[in-house]
Design goal:
The structure holds two protein chains of two kinds. Chain A is an alpha+beta fold. Among the domains of chain A are: 119-228, Sandwich (Immunoglobulin-like), CATH 2.60.40; 243-331, Immunoglobulin-like. Chain A has helices at residues 2-11, 26-58, 82-109, 223-234, 243-254, 257-260, 294-302, 304-307, 320-331; strands spanning 119-126, 129-134, 143-146, 148-152, 157-163, 168-171, 179-181, 187-191, 197-203, 215-221, 284-285, 290-291. In chain A, helix 5 crosses helix 9 (320-331). The radius of gyration of chain A is 28 Å and the shape is elongated. Chain B has six helices and two strands, in the order H-H-H-H-E-H-H-E. Chain B has helices at residues 2-22, 56-66, 69-81, 85-88, 110-119, 134-147, and strands at residues 103-104, 178-179. The termini of chain B are far apart. Classes of the chains: A alpha+beta, B mainly alpha. The A-B interface holds A 165, 209, 254-256, 258-260, 270, 272, 302-303, 305-306, 309-310, 314-317, 319 and B 26-32, 34, 36-37, 81-83, 130-133, 135-136, 161.
């Protein structure tokens, strides 16, 4: 099954929204070239080894085995021959060449950002979701969202990473390699997406029970679309305009939701869980676990432990009317 | 031979103990089993002025969390997440009363602390009824009791995950508790 998946990914690199073989930016393109170089080199080595092995099996000795000499007539052990010495020297030289190549490749891959005006994004890992902050010198221009990163195409994106709990790793293979998110330690890297498209990335460092359900979407869009998105995200949540929606907001503020989540424009301002000010604008919920539909959100609110066992969010036994009102309200959080 | 048998038995006993200590319920509570916010679990109500004897079910409820290292560490995490730390600091107190001293105005038994969290107390402690699910309140209760060394030593946290502000709970000697009795 896994083999089939790998084969499918390999045969259809264009279709992969999470594929290192379908690069969208300069760094990913370099990684892809390295990947193919390694592929062909190892393929040649593989063919040579298997070929030699097959030949030696086919041409096995046809004569009778040589009788083993008695112990006292054993020939003296030969000193290490020239062939072996040459092989060792060759191995050491190869290792040095690889070492130099590795340093050079690493330097090229992580060369510092030339542009002076990149989009700066802070990505903070949590068990098991991504906090995304678009930092700005002006406090009121800062955007806080989760699990969905919007970037303009053709512009260098500067990512600063850290973690709140354990080590995570940010990996969107279409744009760059992996980068670990380490608690109490900030690292930076950059990438650039040249094709407007939605990519998928995920945590690449085992971080606990729900590591497998810790993914995110990377939406690369035109600068105009990005600016539009940004302006929308800067807004506070709209005031509820109908009775049901008002009730829904009340449900949110008087139940456990308010203990962990933020909805800007209301008194909910906790930073333990994802910011929900614009939750309805996102494609997925629970860090890419489920598509963002009304039914999925309802199931998630009532019993998240069923969908993502071990997740930090507790079950919420709301009455059906309260739940429907809350869902009505949450649908307005675009 | 006898020695070998004794060692084996001891090892098995240790294994058993560690099972209980580390046991983790992946489904702490389902939506159906969590009491709704309106249901009253304790008899102490704001304004009633009385504290009736503790219902016996409550202590067995707290036991499940008090003898479990995972529950206590979850309690420690929630203590920060729900901002208990904002008033009580890391136990030393501030705007709220200290939790690492031996004085307990409203009692130090699990049920007393549960009530304090769920019902709130006069002069500042807010009620968290309906805001924190029951099982998480019990986890916080277990952690609060660990701060004064009231739990088994092998259950109490041996170190903090963050900057060290005080001795780990497992190194805290159990203080003689004063205040309202169990």
């Amino acid at each position: 099954m896994i083999n089939l998946c790998v084969l499918a990914l390999w045969l259809d690199p264009v279709g992969g929204i999470q594929s290192a073989l379908d690069p969208a930016g300069p760094q990913a393109a370099r990684i892809e070239r390295l990947w193919w170089l390694m592929f062909w080199v190892t393929l040649v080595v593989f063919v040579l080894v298997i070929g030699t092995l097959s030949i030696s099996i086919a041409r096995r000795r046809r004569s009778q085995p040589i009788p083993f000499p008695p112990k006292d007539k054993l020939p003296a052990e030969k000193p290490i021959g020239r062939v072996i010495a040459a092989a060792i020297a060759l191995t050491i030289i190869t290792l040095f060449v690889l070492l130099v190549a590795s340093v050079v490749a690493g330097k090229n891959q992580h060369q510092s950002l030339a542009s002076t005006n990149p989009v700066s994004i802070q990505v903070i890992g949590h068990q098991w979701w991504w906090e995304v902050r678009y930092t700005s010198p002006q406090a009121d221009q800062t955007i806080i969202t989760a699990n969905e990163i919007h970037v303009p195409v053709g512009v260098p994106i500067n990512i600063n990473t850290s973690s709140r709990d354990v080590i995570h790793s940010f990996w969107a293979p279409n744009v760059n390699g992996k980068r670990d998110l380490i608690p109490g330690y900030s690292t930076a890297f950059w990438f650039q997406a040249d094709t407007a498209r939605t990519y998928r990335g995920q945590c690449a460092e085992f971080c606990g029970l729900q590591h497998a359900h810790m993914s995110f979407y990377l939406v690369a869009e035109t600068p105009q679309q990005f600016e539009q998105w940004k302006q929308q995200q800067l807004k506070s949540a709209p005031e509820p305009d109908t009775e049901t929606k008002k009730r829904g907001q009340g449900v949110f503020l008087s139940n456990a939701c308010v203990m962990c989540h933020t909805i800007r424009g209301t008194i909910a301002g906790s930073r333990v869980g994802p910011d929900l000010t614009h939750v309805a604008s996102r494609q997925a919920i629970a860090a890419g676990t489920l598509p963002n539909t009304r039914g999925n959100i309802a199931g998630w609110i009532v019993d998240p432990q069923h969908i993502k066992p071990g997740v930090r969010m507790p079950p919420n036994p709301l009455s059906p009317d309260d739940l429907n009102a809350l869902l009505d309200y949450m649908e307005t959080l675009k | 031979m006898n020695l070998a048998r004794a060692v084996t038995l001891l090892a098995l006993a240790t294994l058993l103990a560690s099972c209980e200590r580390e046991q983790r319920g992946f489904r702490e509570a389902t939506a159906a089993s969590i009491s709704s916010s309106a249901e009253q679990r304790v008899d102490f109500q704001p304004g009633s002025g009385t504290t009736a004897p503790v219902a016996p079910t409550s202590s067995s409820m707290s036991d499940a969390y008090e003898y479990n290292a995972y529950a206590v560490s979850e309690g420690a995490r929630l203590y920060n997440a729900y901002n208990c730390v904002g008033c009580h600091a890391h136990g030393g107190g501030g705007m709220g009363v200290p939790l690492i001293d031996k004085e307990w105005l409203y009692g130090y038994s699990p049920t007393d602390i549960y009530k304090t969290i769920v019902e709130g107390r006069s002069n500042g402690m807010p009620s968290f009824r309906g805001k924190i699910p029951d099982y998480q309140v019990w986890q916080i209760v277990a952690y609060v009791r660990a701060m004064t060394g009231q739990l088994r030593k092998d259950v109490e946290p041996g170190r903090t995950d963050h900057m060290t502000t005080k001795k780990p709970e497992s190194s805290t000697p159990q203080e003689p508790q004063t205040g309202a009795k169990q």
